[in-house]
């Protein structure tokens, strides 16, 4: 070890980084899932489309606000957002997905090469934001404890379509001890711009979900005895609808590799 | 009185009408301010613009959600809304305003003659919705008691612009007894899609309001000793921004002559 090497013990852990420090790591080419990074700061989903698709996406989100809470929309061609001072939306997400006609063509760490002057970016709320509040209230996050991604399911419920955008509601599921379902509902209801209250609790079949052990996205999660499956509207919904409608070009974040904003999770709590 | 005449005493009072009955009265040419009509049903602001202005309006609303809570957006040319079964948006508002290049050109009771196939209508939440909840909680509505329209003021705060839409935040003011400001805040905070919590309480000067006795819209309202002026973001904001941006053509409702929907005020309460 030389005098210039920072001792390992002093290196900030991911949860201790500021959002600006984290974005700088990703801008320089670092890449990591962001769960647990920059504690108490708001992470968001990214959807980037050509300007002539922007109205359809925005209207789809207005008509389906529980799965699609829009937290910011950029000017065409701009790679700045009001949610993160100095951020560059072309480089500061740790991993992107590039889509052509609904087909995944690349998973790069920046999108400078494919950026266009007509692109509009939507930043959409993410359930990480209310998970922290649930954890603070003593509600176990089974998937976190099990080191897995949250389980997500395509339901049989159609979203209200908008222009070329249409698709089924996607939900995330968290097993919650039966006597805490009320608390989980109350706390997430206080955060309507990050999916709000659950849309359903108890009966997967009522949502058209046949087997909880086989999620459509993410990982299966083991429930504990006495847990009830609780379903929240999921930010994957607009992404799935967009891919199904096959725009000629689109960029999204890679699942779990979110944009970390300067906003605080508490900014999205009503009380 | 003939056998066919319904006795006056049995005629439903406006607050007892169903929304469908009220809309039918207006469709047939009746016209009245709608304050107090169809108790517990949600009344909304109407803004109708050519489709090529729709993205700017929708984005302005997304960027300024407290003054501009969008409850529905129609398909181009459609005069139906998901909020009111069977309603005709060209006839069911009791009085309209027709605008050309930002100038008021007519105040008709229907807009069938000027309707166009490229028109998109925005229905925007209204403070009538939270006023009922405040009244239920024992908070006096001074302007209602005084038989006046609510007092509205243009503030010095700029909204976040979107495309051609820009303008200052408009607020409504209600004098609230000092020991009830907390209750008024808590209850309205639970209704984020109808303006939510107040944006300010106490100091008109901090909002650039010079004289509470001279509102920019509505009527001056007399405060009682011990009242504090409480300010909520107001649905006049998007209308004022639209008029200032002078679209070639637009339709709005006339102030106080709202569309009465089938939705219930309680639909917009989180808890």
Automatic annotation (TrEMBL), chains A, B:
InterPro entries: D-Glu_cyclase, Putative_hydro-lyase, UPF0317. Belongs to the D-glutamate cyclase family. The keyword Lyase applies. The keyword Plastid does not apply. Keywords: Lyase. Coiled coil: none annotated. Its EC number is 4.2.1.-. Pfam families: D-Glu_cyclase. It is an enzyme of class 4 (lyase). This is Putative hydro-lyase ABT276_20895.
């Amino acid at each position: 070890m030389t005098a210039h090497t920072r001792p390992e013990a002093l290196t900030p852990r991911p949860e201790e980084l500021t959002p600006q420090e984290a974005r700088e790591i990703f801008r320089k080419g670092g890449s990591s899932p962001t769960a647990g990074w920059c504690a108490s700061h708001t992470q968001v989903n990214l959807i980037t489309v050509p300007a002539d698709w922007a109205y359809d996406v925005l209207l789809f989100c207005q008509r389906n606000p529980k799965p699609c809470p829009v937290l910011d929309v950029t000017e065409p061609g701009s790679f700045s957002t009001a949610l993160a001072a100095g951020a560059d939306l072309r480089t500061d997400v740790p991993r992107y997905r590039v889509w052509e006609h609904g087909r995944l063509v690349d998973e790069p760490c920046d999108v400078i090469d494919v950026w266009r002057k007509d692109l509009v970016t939507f930043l959409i709320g993410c359930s990480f934001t209310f998970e922290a509040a649930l954890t603070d209230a003593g509600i176990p996050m089974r998937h976190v404890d099990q080191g897995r991604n949250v389980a997500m399911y395509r339901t049989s419920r159609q979203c209200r379509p908008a222009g070329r955008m249409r698709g089924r509601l996607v939900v995330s599921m968290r097993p919650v001890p039966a006597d805490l379902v009320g608390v989980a509902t109350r706390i997430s209801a206080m955060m309507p711009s990050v999916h709000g209250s659950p849309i359903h609790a108890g009966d997967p079949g009522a949502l058209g979900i046949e087997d909880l052990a086989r999620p459509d996205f993410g990982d299966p999660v083991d429930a504990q005895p006495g847990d009830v499956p609780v379903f929240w509207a999921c930010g994957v919904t607009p992404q799935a609808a967009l891919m199904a409608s096959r725009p000629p070009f689109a960029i999204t974040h890679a699942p779990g590799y979110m944009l970390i904003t300067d906003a605080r999770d508490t900014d999205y709590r009503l009380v």
